[in-house]
Amino acid sequence: MDWLKFMYDLIAVFGFSLLGIILMALGYKILDWVVPADFNKELEKGNLAVGVVVAGLLIGIALIIARVVGV
């Protein structure tokens, strides 16, 4: 019985991890679409300020996703 519960929990972890990654990518794409600046181009130029903003946005999205998924 413990083996079956372990496998169920393992599948749940991978499923929620995949869901979180998909939602993070979707959230980044939506923010990139809404904000008029081109984040990718600015990051390629080495713009540190844009990097900090993107990192903050991703952390914020991750916190929201974590609460929704139920961590």
What's the arrangement of secondary structure elements?
Blueprint: H1 2-34, H2 39-44, H3 48-69
Description:
This is Putative membrane protein. Belongs to the UPF0719 family. The chain is an all-alpha fold and 71 residues long. It has one domain. The protein is 86% helix and 0% strand. The two termini are 25 Å apart. The relative contact order is 0.12.
- Proportion of beta-strand residues: under 5%
Tell the overall outline: elongated
- Strand-and-helix sequence, N→C? HHH
Main sheet overview: none
Keywords:
elongated, about 85% helix, single chain, about 0% strand, mainly alpha, 3 helices, about 70 residues
Question: Quick recap of the structure?
Answer:
The chain crosses the membrane at residues 7-28, 48-69. The protein has 71 residues and is mainly alpha-helical.
